[in-house]
């Protein structure tokens, strides 16, 4: 039976607790697991048998979260982590070693940009940046040491959907998997179905949805033929000295699991250690259950907000896929098949001063550096998230002085519009005072 997303988030990977019959997934707040015998323990550690040994590499509560998000994205397995940052970092570190490189889209979350431009580069993994305006830029930046491509489905502030199918195809012809950060577009975009091989999420955002817990996840699409690319992908195809010569594609085949997720769990996570706590995995499972419903409401609210702002005299430009034309629209139609998303950008005629006045005038929307919450959120990037960049870098990233980013929540649309309206009025009052 192939279930739909609305059903998978409630049912995938769990029926009831085998010990008690509990329907809700229990919080298995344990570090370790009693081995029934020495033989059993030996088999677990030698990977002859799969099972829980220690919560750094696996936990029964976390396991359900991993199975559900993998099912939702259409992958074969997943690894949940302590944060989205850990997910991004580990997704790359699994494939790229010192002297290797990856090619990444320039349009990235700030934390990922820093990770790639500074932290990974300082440790010998070069990240080459490609402008996603032309998919061919990825091919041009590729050489024999390129191990992966990386991009975000719906990067803000530009909110132009990434050409997933085109770049994935360029990579697949050369044995290079595309890793897609789908944080801003769960449910509405299906990167694996478009050809991406790996999906990462900051589960902190829409998946959790209630602003309570930091978490991340890496999903193995199971749709990439690693064995066909032995030279290109040595991490998957050559004996791993850190695991008594295991070859991850062979381990995976023996157990019918994803080779990539087995590698990340058994080496990168084992050694760098950023496990999510079982409690946070539980919180994210609660959020996941209502994700499709929230996304539906958030997308319809955001579309209404975008249309309302577009008619407002104080607003010079509105950025939302529902209003795009030309190539951006064509990409949105191909990638965002479930709706245009719930992030909305807009520009105020009065520049940075008006941006700050608008934010200070909000009464209902929260002023926070976050997205994806059930509550509506706002931020003025030029004076906050993007303030460390030079003025030119800010403009190149799409942040003008008067740019405001909204993450629209599930409140009643009338109340959201009323708050935006009074905050826009407050700009004029403050400016006149
Ligand atoms: C927030 C975010 C991250 C980082 O996730 P954390 O859970 O905060 O570590 C990565 N990518 C995108 C697109 C994000 O919005």
TrEMBL record:
Keyword Transferase: yes
Highest taxon above the source species: Bacteria
One of the GO BP terms on file: cysteine biosynthetic process from serine
Pfam families: Cys_Met_Meta_PP
Gene3D superfamilies found in the cross-reference section: Aspartate Aminotransferase, domain 1, Type I PLP-dependent aspartate aminotransferase-like (Major domain)
Keywords: Pyridoxal phosphate, Transferase
SUPFAM superfamilies hit by this protein: PLP-dependent transferases
GO cellular component: cytoplasm
Co-factor requirement: pyridoxal 5'-phosphate
CDD domains: CGS_like
Gene Ontology terms for molecular function: cysteine synthase activity; O-acetylhomoserine aminocarboxypropyltransferase activity; pyridoxal phosphate binding
Positions carrying N6-(pyridoxal phosphate)lysine: 205
Assigned protein family: Belongs to the trans-sulfuration enzymes family.
Protein name, per record: PLP-dependent transferase
């Amino acid at each position: 039976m192939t279930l739909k997303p609305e059903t998978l988030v409630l049912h995938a990977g769990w029926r009831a607790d085998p010990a008690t019959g509990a329907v809700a997934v229990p919080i298995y707040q344990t570090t370790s697991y009693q081995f029934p015998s020495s033989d059993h323990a030996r088999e677990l550690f030698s990977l002859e048998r799969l099972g829980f040994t220690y919560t750094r590499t696996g936990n029964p509560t976390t396991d359900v979260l991993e199975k559900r998000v993998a099912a939702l994205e259409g992958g074969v397995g997943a690894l949940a982590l302590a944060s989205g940052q850990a997910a991004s970092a580990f997704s790359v570190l699994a494939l790229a070693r010192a002297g290797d490189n990856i090619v990444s889209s320039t349009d990235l979350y700030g934390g990922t940009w820093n990770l790639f431009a500074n932290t990974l580069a300082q440790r010998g993994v070069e990240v080459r940046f490609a402008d996603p305006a032309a998919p061919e830029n990825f091919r041009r930046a590729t050489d024999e040491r390129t191990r992966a491509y990386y991009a975000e489905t719906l990067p803000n502030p530009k909110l132009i959907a990434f050409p997933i199918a085109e770049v994935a195809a360029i990579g697949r012809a050369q044995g290079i998997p595309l890793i897609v950060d789908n944080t801003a577009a769960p449910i509405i975009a299906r990167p694996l179905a478009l050809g991406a091989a790996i999906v990462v999420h900051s589960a902190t955002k829409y998946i959790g949805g209630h602003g309570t817990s930091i978490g991340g996840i890496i999903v193995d699409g199971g749709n990439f033929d690693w064995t066909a690319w032995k030279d290109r992908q040595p991490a998957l195809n050559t004996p791993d000295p850190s695991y008594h010569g295991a070859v991850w594609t062979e381990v995976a085949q023996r157990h019918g699991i994803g080779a990539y997720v087995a590698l990340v769990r058994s080496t990168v996570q084992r050694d760098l250690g950023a496990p999510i706590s079982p409690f946070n995995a539980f919180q994210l499972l609660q959020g996941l259950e209502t994700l499709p419903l929230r996304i539906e409401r958030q997308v319809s609210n955001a579309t209404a907000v975008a249309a309302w702002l577009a008619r407002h005299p104080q607003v010079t430009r509105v950025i939302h896929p529902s209003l795009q034309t030309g190539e951006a629209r064509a990409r949105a139609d191909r990638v965002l098949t479930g709706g245009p998303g719930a992030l909305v950008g807009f520009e105020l005629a009065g520049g940075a001063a008006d941006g700050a006045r608008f934010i200070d005038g909000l009464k209902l929307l929260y002023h926070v550096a976050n997205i994806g919450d059930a509550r509506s959120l706002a931020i003025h990037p030029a004076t906050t998230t993007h303030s460390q960049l030079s003025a030119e870098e800010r403009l190149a990233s799409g942040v003008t002085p008067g740019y405001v980013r909204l993450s629209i929540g599930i409140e009643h649309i009338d109340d959201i519009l009323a708050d935006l309206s009074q905050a826009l009025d407050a700009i004029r009052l403050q400016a006149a005072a």
